[in-house]
Amino acid sequence: MSENDYYWQVESSVYGGTGYAPATLEEYTAIARALDDEASALAALATSWSSAALQLQAHRTSAPMCPALSAGEPLTATAGHTTVSYTVLGARCQEHAAECTRLSSELSSTASLLIRAHALYSDAELSARRIFTESVQAGVQFKPKHGLIGTAAVAIGGLISGWVIEGKPNPTWMSTSTYPFQEGVMSGLGSFIGGIALGEGVEQTDEVNQGAGKIANVSGPVKDIVQGNHLEITEVHARNEVVRSSNSVGSALENLRRLGEERLGKINLNSGLEYGTIAVQRYQKADGSNAWLVTIPGTDGKKDSPFGWEQNVELMSSDKERRMRADSVRMVTGAMEQAGIGKDEPVALIGHSQGGIVAATIASDWSEDYNIEHVVTAGSPVANHPIPSDTWVTSVEIDDELVGALDGAANPATENWLTVRGHVSPAPAASASTVNADGSCTPGATPIYGATSYDAAPVAGGATNGRELSHWLKYHQAAYQNATDLGSPAVQRHESHFQSVIDGELKETRYFQGRMTSSTTQAPADYSSQVQTFEQ
């Protein structure tokens, strides 16, 4: 491995999705504070032991002309007096200091894990985050140019610091350095574009969506002219298995990654599937009824794909009718109709990036047509979508990915809406074992990649040559894995609900591909039974 290669890890925090009483929360909070207090006491004790060692050293040198003190070992000098063993006592003091430091670190780490797993201080953190976002928003609204210049300066500073660290320019560091300001800047721009006056609607959080609605009123018709507005949905068949049976959110995320990367050409499963493809799976429950799982990858950017860049603006609109007209939503709902999903049959949706926005839009705007029971999003800005309160939402975001911050707000933290928020950092490097002079061994450090840790989860895929965009789904998978490893009751509760929705035997996996055209030209006769044409 090159010295410029890096392994990455993700440390997660959990917000919302709570499933325990306030009294239980208070008990956990008291335990966490007690652990922190003990950690502080041990840290103070470590300082005392270190101070004692320094004082012994000072006593030893207080009489420089005394040979007994200089030796520092018990002996009988010619003058007939002895001294304590300063060398031994000093070493013991340092040993006690090190042990106290170790115990303090372990207790502090345990308290941190408890806080993260049970979202003990999430309300206070979200409140502070909201205040900060509103402050940045106000600054950008009041002085848009100054706000953008300031953000650009921070981004350039991040680029330079990353250049120093990696020895080469890497634009990814610009997103890493600006992530605390991203939501505020986006909501400020949304207010400016949407015509929201400074200070107006302080309680609202959908400034970006209102701004997107204004943009979509112009970009939508232009997109229809350039790309066409006739949607063809074709059922296609995979040569090899891509989306397999899911029994958890984790396995569903893996299937989402496989389909997304296969259609982008990042992996080769020899399936024959191309861009603009989603998967619809039917599970049969023990009582013979059906349940469904719809897997929706993100933007592919192809010029005739319903999952192009242009559709993102429409999906983010605060206007329900505009959201419903977005090509990617029409494509997925059309595929769901072709697959035969019944109005009352339970449905789970999982999507990455634009796919997650599509899932949130369907849950918000098609609640009377489909029984959407659970939505899983990864890296999707969906905070302001009006998802019904009885629909469960599990969102996974990375703090510096930018895309997840495009909604300009934090996700709601309710019992049915859980957010796992990950932070990416370099994983500890491996080190070789050593044999000491006295024959004892010092074990080497094992890199986190391929290991299990409560502190953080490894990002799959091996080493990278520098920091990369954390919007790739593998980072969201690591974030969810770490939240699962923490044993969070909220995560376990949402995991259980997701599993209950699709509990059953997988009976079929069908793939549907969408293409945009500027005319209603019909497909060849031998494909006519597989193609459905939609017009807005």
Write a brief caption for the model.
Keywords: Hydrolase. The chain contains 14 helices and 13 strands.
Give the H and E element order: EHHHHHHHEHEEHHHEHEEEEEEHHEE
Order of strands in the sheet with most strands:
11-1-8-7-6-5-4-3-12-2-13
Oligomeric nature of the chains: single chain
Radius of gyration from the alpha-carbon trace, in angstroms: 29 Å
Description:
By secondary structure, the chain is α/β, with parallel strands linked by helices. The chain has two domains: 99 residues; 382 residues, no CATH class. It has 14 helices and 13 strands. Strands 11-1-8-7-6-5-4-3-12-2-13 form an eleven-stranded mixed beta sheet, with helices on both faces. A two-stranded antiparallel ribbon has the order 9-10. GO terms for molecular function: hydrolase activity. Pfam families: PGAP1. Keywords: Hydrolase. This is Alpha/beta hydrolase.
Give a quick set of tags describing it:
about 525 residues, alpha/beta, 2 domains, eleven-stranded mixed β-sheet, 14 helices, elongated
